[in-house]
Structures are given as structure tokens and as C-alpha cells.
Design goal:
9-stranded mixed sheet; alpha/beta; single chain; 3-stranded mixed sheet
Length: 369
């Protein structure tokens, strides 16, 4: 199924202040009853965070790819529902899923569907997937004097498997004809936590360079022993920024905010494409979406498609403990799928395809108590 993106819209007259919110330490994440409020449902009211007089607290954790978006959206949502508090802590997609399975959060940010090895944790529960963002994973690097690096999938596989050890390796030279490349040793910057970014990056390598990549695809990988591991996209970005010769996989929004340089990557059609919201849009334009709204945006065709584009969902239990919990979740998720989408271009991310967004809004009605 081909999906066409809605036009990117800049939120007018709204100044959004990013909030540094952390996940509360409470063991229960239930919301208080809404006094005189009505449940937000599918359609226009849900997509704008509708439902009057909602109150209580929603807690979420997980994907650091979502972190900036969640912070921006939480701040803006406060003007829509001033009595409904939303907290979102990062920690990686794996942590979000673990917290959701344990019932300590109302929703989990995850850049990949629940892996089969985690399925038993959700036995007896129906989990709904609400896609909220797509964006590129950059090949961010720190190499003085080199500003227009190009990398093919096989070369990236060689670098991250530890087989390509210096920046003047013949494979990198072959991707960068005529460029002056130093003999600087390569330092790998990777994730230490269970990460959807890792899952999608390694899925790209499995799909794009199957003969060169032998470490598989998972939210955790046994990297070469010389790799420097850090928690979250911001942690990997910091390793790259502070380490001459480093290269790491970092989501575009974080890489831009950290002032990092990143490579163009050879795509399925044979073109070297730089990561951007536009090239992510091109990649997501032809994804196949399953009935549960899961899909994979990596290694999609298209002359201008960036090949390491990924996606992120907010996962929730279809059955909530109270009507207030259900109403609050519908309101916040509806906001993320509605006016919240207008925030994405400002932080280097692309809105969802409109047809997918509409399917996600319609799915809000499946959240019940």
C-alpha cells in the first residue's frame, strides 16, 4: 500500500518550551476521575486532544527517538488540557515495553514491535500500536577535514562489525573517490541499552548488506569489544561529539541538536542520499502497513529515499483499569496524532502519512475500560 504524506504545517503563534520531564517513581500509573468530563473518542475531537475537564496523570517511558517530540508535545498539550499531567521518561524502547508489561506506565514508546522473546510478558493483554513519528537514523561521525562522507551499506556493515578499522580503509575510499581520508582509527559509538534505534539500524544492515553483516538484528547487539557504548540517542551523540574518529548511529533530530556531521548513505536505487525529513518522507512513501499498524520503513525504494529511516509507536493496553484512564489516553494520543503532528517539522521529523494517521485516530476507539 502506498502512503502519501500530508503537507507539513508549521504551528502558528505557538511558542513551545521543551520540558525536562522524568518518569515518576510511583508504582501505579492510574489517573484520577475526570470531573464532569467526557471521553475523547475518534474523529476531530480526539485528534486535537478533545474532551473537556480531564484531569489526572499519564506516565510513559521508552524510545529516546521520541523524547524530543514527547517533550514538545507535553508542553503544548498543557494548553489544551491544563489539569492532565503527562510525564515521559526515555530509557530506550526495551525499558518502555518492560514498564508497560509491568503496569508501571500508561504507554510505552517503542521503535519496534514487541519481539517474540518478550511476548510472554504481555500474555492476556491486547496491545495497540499507535504510530506517531518517522525519521532518519544518521551515520554521525567526527572526522576533521571530512564534511561530505559517503557510505554504502556494505561499508557500514564492515565498520560496525569491526572489520574496517581505519578511515582510509579501501572500502571507504571506494565510496569516496577523490576524497582525502586520514588514517585515523575508527571508534564505534553504540547503544548500551535495549534500543529500537539499534533494532532498526541492524535491520537495515540485514536487509541491505546480508553478506557483509553477520551480527543479526535485535534491540541489543554484541558489538566489537572496542566499541564505546552509551545510553540513549543523546548518549551516543555525546560519544561521537567528544571522540575524534568516532562514528555512531543517532536519530536525526538528536544529531542536528548536537551539531554532529553525518554521512550520505547509498540507497536501494543506488543513490547516495543525505538524511532529512524530506528523504525520510520519500522512504516512508511506499511502506506496507499491517492491520495492527506496524510496518518497517528501512531499506525502502525510491530515488530520493533515505535508506535508514525508521518509525516509532506508542503502545497501550486496549483495556484500561478505569474510564478516566481510557479517556486521558485517548485525549493525549489523539493530540499526538492531530495538532501534535504539526510540531514535527520544527524538530527535524516528518508527520505521518495522512492515511496512516487516519487509521491510528480511528483506532482510538479500541481503548476501553
Amino acid at each position: 500500500m502506498r502512503l502519501r504524506y500530508r503537507q507539513q504545517v508549521t504551528a502558528a503563534g505557538v511558542s513551545v518550551v521543551a520540558l525536562a520531564l522524568t518518569l515518576g517513581a510511583c508504582s501505579s500509573s492510574s489517573s484520577s476521575s475526570a470531573s464532569g468530563g467526557s471521553s475523547a473518542s475518534g474523529g476531530a475531537s480526539s485528534s486535537s486532544g478533545g474532551g473537556s475537564n480531564l484531569s489526572g496523570t499519564l506516565n510513559g517511558s521508552g524510545s529516546t527517538f521520541q523524547l524530543t517530540f514527547q517533550q514538545e508535545a507535553i508542553a503544548a498539550f498543557k494548553s489544551v488540557q491544563p489539569n492532565l499531567t503527562v510525564n515521559y521518561g526515555g530509557g530506550g524502547s526495551g525499558k518502555g515495553r518492560t514498564d508497560l508489561a509491568a503496569g508501571t506506565v500508561n504507554f510505552a514508546g517503542s521503535d519496534s514491535p514487541i519481539p517474540s522473546k518478550e511476548a510472554s510478558s504481555f500474555t492476556g493483554k491486547t496491545i495497540l500500536y499507535f504510530p506517531v513519528i518517522v525519521g532518519p537514523i544518521t551515520m554521525a561521525y567526527n572526522l576533521s577535514g571530512v564534511s561530505n562522507l559517503k557510505l554504502s551499506p556494505a561499508t557500514i556493515a564492515g565498520i560496525f562489525s569491526g572489520k574496517i578499522k581505519t578511515w582510509n580503509d579501501p572500502a571507504i575510499k571506494a565510496d569516496n573517490s577523490g576524497a582525502s581520508l586520514p588514517s585515523t582509527p575508527i571508534t564505534l559509538a553504540v547503544r548500551s541499552d535495549s534500543s529500537g534505534t539499534t533494532q532498526n539500524f541492524t535491520e537495515f544492515l540485514v536487509e541491505a548488506a546480508p553478506s557483509a553483516w553477520t551480527l543479526g538484528s535485535s534491540s541489543t547487539i554484541k558489538w566489537p569489544s572496542s566499541a564505546r557504548a552509551a545510553s540513549g540517542n543523546p548518549g551516543v551523540a555525546q560519544v561521537v561529539k567528544s571522540t575524534p574518529g568516532a562514528i555512531g548511529y543517532v536519530d536525526y533530530s538528536t544529531a542536528k541538536a548536537s551539531g554532529l556531521t553525518f554521512a550520505s548513505v547509498k540507497n536501494k536505487d543506488g543513490s547516495f542520499i543525505a538524511p532529512s525529513p524530506e528523504s525520510a518522507t520519500a522512504a516512508a512513501d511506499s511502506v506496507a502497513v499491517k492491520p495492527d499498524l506496524t510496518f518497517a520503513a528501512v531499506w525502502q525504494g525510491g530515488a530520493t529515499a533515505y535508506p535508514i529511516t525508521y518509525q516509532s509507536w506508542d503502545l497501550v493496553n486496549a483495556k484500561q483499569p478505569t474510564a478516566a484512564d481510557a479517556a486521558n489516553l485517548k485525549a493525549y494520543l489523539g493530540y499526538l496524532l492531530g495538532d501534535g503532528q504539526k510540531l514535527l517539522p520544527q524538530i527535524g521529523l516528518a508527520p505521518l502519512p495522512s492515511s496512516l494517521d487516519q487509521k491510528a485516530v480511528a483506532q482510538l476507539d479500541k481503548i476501553t475500560s
